Amino acid sequence: MNKVELQKSAVGYSVATVGNLASFEGKAFVKDVLGTTSIELSFGTLAPGTSVPFFHHHKQNEEVYVVLSGTGVFILDGEEVPVSSGSIVRIAPEVSRNTKCTGDKPLEYICIQGKANSLEQYTMTDGVVEE
Ligand code: ZN
């Protein structure tokens, strides 16, 4: 079951929601609903004391995790890295990773994955200000 609900789809853009983040639980991926072509984005929550049920790495995508709330640790190639609200973690494809909620409230985060070394233009080198 995908928890992402498409609200509007038009040529050139799409809008979806996962509902109020305050009550969001579990994991939801947006690529298929929004039709993204260069990144995947997911919302994730981990209940206190729980971890992602597996370690994983990627073939070609790097990931950036943005911690929205809670506290936890990322286990990156065996090294524990503490995180909390506001933490931003970039992980190269080949790094083994897992995430654990260590606080007494859920760890809530966004994960963005994109093909490593594919970014050629960004911000003002890609953005075009219109008159
Ligand atoms: Zn991943």
Description:
This protein is mainly beta and 131 residues long. It is 3% helix and 47% strand. The protein contains one helix and ten strands; from the N terminus they run βββαβββββββ. It has one helix spanning 31-34; strands at 5-10, 13-17, 27-29, 39-46, 61-69, 71-76, 79-84, 88-91, 97-101, 107-115. The strands form three sheets. The chain has a five-stranded antiparallel β-sheet. It has a three-stranded antiparallel β-sheet with strand order 7-6-9, with no helix packed on it. The mean pLDDT is 95.
Identify the notable features of this structure and list them briefly.
1 helix; globular; 131 residues; three-stranded antiparallel beta sheet; mainly beta; binds zinc ion
- What hetero molecules are bound to the protein chains? zinc ion
How many helices? The count is 1
Beta-strand residue percentage: over 45%
Characterize the quaternary organization of these chains.
Answer: single chain
The SSE string, one letter per element, is EEEHEEEEEEE
Strand order of the largest sheet: 3-4-10-5-8
Distance between the termini: 43 Å
Number of strands: 10
Radius of gyration: 16 Å
Query: Low-confidence parts lasting 5 or more residues at pLDDT below 50?
Result: none
In this structure, how is the largest beta sheet organized?
Answer: 5 strands, antiparallel
| Overall pLDDT | 95
Helix content: under 10%
Task: Specify the overall morphology.
Answer: globular
State the secondary-structure class.
mainly beta
